[in-house]
Amino acid sequence: MNEFALITSVALSVISASTPLLLAATGELVTEKSGVLNLGVEGMMLVGAIVGFAVTLGTGSAVLGVCAAALAGAAMALVFAVLTLTLLANQVATGLALTIFGIGLSALIGSGYVGQPLQPLPKLAVPGLSTLPVVGPILFGQDALVYLSFAALIAVSWFLRRSHAGLILRAVGDSHDAAHAIGYGVIKVRYLATLFGGAMCGIAGAYFSLAYTPMWAENMTSGRGWIALALVVFATWRPARLLLGAYLFGGITILQLHIQGFGIPVPSQFVSMLPYLATIVVLVAISSDRTRVRLNTPACLGRAFNAAG
């Protein structure tokens, strides 16, 4: 394999590993900006993965599969929203329960789909550009969900910083009592933000079963939902840093696949730990700068709101 082919192969692998992290973390960022802490990302991703796979396999349409995955993720998020925003259940406990429920539900639905083949999402070839060395396949030869991950991040960044609705969402996350006092619908805003986060997690799950490894396997996300949650903290709730974090962790995930191939004598168990070990190290490093974390964290994150007082 020549040098250009090696660079291209590694870059494509990093993009594939980073895309579901970026999709899920973008959705969770919006959810947390509204003051809602949903720890059920892993469960929503798994349900999105199996629903997207099943619909695509049954209909032959990847577009329908991705849409179904988004609806499945949003439905899971709706369960969480009803329990925490309407019934005022504890958000942390409910999020953990949602993950456990999603793992079990996806395994149940997917029991009849294990081992069935599926064509991966088609790459979008741009005539005259996709064939360029290195930059061609990297920039102009990706599937639609890769481009969606970038478009969603840009849209969310603009929404939070420039739009009136985004300012309302941030106000709800920073002080729900003040937002309610001036007439904003705190619960409505949080419902919409939570549903958006769930839909993005469903799409991230669909990327696993339709593009990353076009098949269904139980618990195929392998803890990536927890990494997506950590990415939001790593980015200190800022969209621009979310992109950096997603590709950093995506690169570490790919590194674990190649490190032994480079002849480095590292036990395979340690190599498998790398993405999660890196997550812990980064979170500890970020936590040491408490001032920055406190300035960027939504003040009402995880706090229940009761309009009745």
UniProtKB/TrEMBL annotation:
Transmembrane annotation, as ranges: 6-24, 36-57, 63-88, 95-114, 134-160, 191-210, 216-237, 244-264, 270-286
One Pfam family matching this protein: BPD_transp_2
Membrane topology: Multi-pass membrane protein
Subcellular location: Cell membrane
Keywords: Cell membrane, Membrane, Transmembrane, Transmembrane helix
PANTHER family xref list: ABC TRANSPORTER PERMEASE PROTEIN, SUGAR ABC TRANSPORTER INTEGRAL MEMBRANE PROTEIN-RELATED
Protein name, UniProt field: ABC transporter permease
